[in-house]
Write a structure and sequence with these properties.
Elements: H1 3-29, H2 33-54, H3 62-74, H4 81-99, H5 107-130
Amino acid sequence: MNAMDTRAQIAAELAKADDALAAGEALLGIGLFDDAVVRFYYATLHHASAALLAEGVEATSHRGVHTLFSQHLVRPGKLDVATARDLRRLAALRDAADYDRNFRFDRTGAEVEAEVARAFVARVRAWLASGGWVEAPSA
């Protein structure tokens, strides 16, 4: 994959990520807290996939994204351990929200996870911008 193809792939992942983040915010706003947290997870997953693409790596599964994210971005010190931890945290909560019939988010819990997702997105976007893959966030 050449740099132009890589940029297009990163842009496509980030477009999906932006949609997931917007959906999470909308779902949070109407009180669908479990669904909001699921969408916040997908926002982080697509950001992690975009970061991997910037490293020339493409994962084919959720688990692959998590493993490769740690291997290629966290272990070399490009992103901090907290970033990978947040990705794993949201993945576990997504599983609970989707599959555990006895698990329910309330507004406070969902808002906490929204902040976790927003912070993850900000860290990954800043890293992508530092590598010239996306424009730097405006202040």
